[in-house]
Amino acid sequence: MDSDTIWRHVDDQRARLADLFDTVEAHRWDTPSLCEGWTVRDVAAHLTHSHMAKPRMALEAVRSGFRFNAMVYRVAVQDNRTPHQITEALRGMRGSRRRPPGTAECDPLMDVLVHGQDIAVPLGLELSMPPDAAVVAARRLWGMRFPLNPRRRLRGIELAATDADFRVGDGRRVEAPIRDIVMTLAGRPAGISALR
């Protein structure tokens, strides 16, 4: 997928998520997300942190002893913006191609697709995942060693999408929609039930 198409999907998903956030009642922002230990609000705030200024990002890394996961979690749970402010920040990111240092161009797409489901699924809301964008995210996830390493976690399994041109792995064949494969590769409990 070319760069312009990737960013068009990112913009579309950010806009759709912001619209979805507008429908979430205030008390539901504390709903546990699919990210263990994170609320819906924490994940929503995290989605805006890719636009954090580089000096602040460096400072937060130092504060967290350069432990990436600890930094990301701490910054999300300490974010004191209101749901409306988070929603407007996400909406304001449309059109930007900014991404954190050291990340691949498809990482913001993977981030918004996976975290969109992290939020929507526990709230019982439907959020579709465009198959072509999901394939890009799945390929990125499959190639990751840190922090997820799905090749090791899913050793002995072949994943094949039923609604997209995507197949990875060797072993017992498991077929599922590409959205479920993406969530499985991302290590989420909302992934493929056949793997349980």
TrEMBL record:
Gene3D superfamilies: dinb family like domain (1.20.120.450). Keywords: Isomerase. Residues 11-98 form the Mycothiol-dependent maleylpyruvate isomerase metal-binding domain. The keyword Isomerase applies. It comes from the Bacteria. InterPro entries: DinB/YfiT-like, Maleyloyr_isom, MDMPI_metal-binding. GO terms for molecular function: isomerase activity. NCBIfam families: maleylpyruvate isomerase family mycothiol-dependent enzyme. This is Maleylpyruvate isomerase family mycothiol-dependent enzyme. It comes from Mycobacterium deserti. The lineage of its organism: Bacteria, Bacillati, Actinomycetota, Actinomycetes, Mycobacteriales.
